[in-house]
Amino acid sequence: MVKVQLLILLLSVLFISCNQPRFIYNQNSRNVHFFNEKGQSRIAAAVTTGPTRGGLDSMSNYNTGYDFQGAYAVTRNFAIQGGYYSRRERDLISWDNNTFVWSDVRYRRSGWELGGSYFVPMDNGAFTFFHIDAGVGLTKNSFTDNGGLLDTSNAVIDYSKSYKDRQLRIFAQPGLYTGKGGVQFGTGFRVQWSKYSDVITDYSQVEKATLRLSGLNELFSVEPYMIFRFGPSSIPGLRLELQSSFNLASADRWVRGWYIGMGLVVDPLRFRLKH
């Protein structure tokens, strides 16, 4: 009887795989500095949110996180920058076709990035700048997958799975930013190659193939973004920042499609000079 129940569970997972994805990637916030001269700095803290996969009590789902970032203009055209980010996600999802299947998938991600940025003015007034950033990062991804189903005799069959990996990220990020006074706008895109390693999971080979986790090695993505900053002209070292980006991943994998972020940006040196 136990073997029959396990077979029902496996077949159910196979049939619902398109409705119950397992996400291997979520973006971090873009670290765009908006510098226009040597000696400027950026310290930023932001919160983010994004899409979830619902179907069963969708109000319990979440995709939230936070980012801490910093940057400093070493010269009039070059800056160094880095950041740390963390994400927490939950997909409480279900599917019903003769048997009722549910899964509670909870993700945890955290990582860091380090890089540099070249920036140059595009006009005589130095209001619009072209920049290209490049760097490397390392992310730890993990999730737990707990769920169950009701078989034809209304017996509950529970299951529990887990997954972990490490993700090396190498990226380039060209873009433009412009503005004067208290309002600024930036746009561009990130081109990123990711290498996955140290995968630890108790999914079977069939389950990994069904959930698009099998053979996970690398991921190439293009991520366009927009950023809007504003604040009082009398306090140039303090800005509120809104940003968003969406993901165009190349591989046949499940990735989070977009995010929206809001944060506070401070230039300690300019802020101190004005106060």
Write structural notes for this entry.
The chain has a single domain (2-274), classed as Beta Barrel (Lipocalin). Helix content is 10%, strand content 60%. It contains three helices and eleven strands. Strands 1-2-3-4-5-6-7-8-9-11 form a ten-stranded antiparallel beta barrel. A hairpin with a 1-residue loop joins strand 3 and strand 4 (99-121). The chain is elongated, with a radius of gyration of 22 Å. The mean pLDDT is 87.
Write the layout of secondary structure elements.
Elements: H1 2-16, E1 41-49, E2 62-73, E3 78-97, E4 99-121, E5 128-150, E6 156-180, E7 183-201, H2 205-210, E8 218-230, E9 238-246, E10 248-249, E11 258-266, H3 268-274
Antiparallel strand pairs: 1-2, 1-11, 2-3, 3-4, 4-5, 5-6, 6-7, 7-8, 8-9, 8-10, 9-11
Level-1 CATH class name:
Mainly Beta
Strand content bin: over 45%
**Unreliable stretches:** none
Average pLDDT confidence is 87
Order of helices and strands: HEEEEEEEHEEEEH
Determine the number of helices (DSSP H or I, runs of at least 4 residues): 3
What count of structural domains? 1
> In which range does the helix fraction lie?
10-25%
DSSP E strands, number: 11
**What is the distance, rounded to the nearest whole angstrom, between the alpha carbons of the first and last residues?**
75 Å
Radius of gyration: 22 Å
Largest sheet: 10 strands, antiparallel, barrel
Helix/strand/pairing class, anyone?
Answer: mainly beta
Query: What general outline do the C-alpha atoms trace?
Result: elongated
- Across the major sheet, the strand order is 1-2-3-4-5-6-7-8-9-11
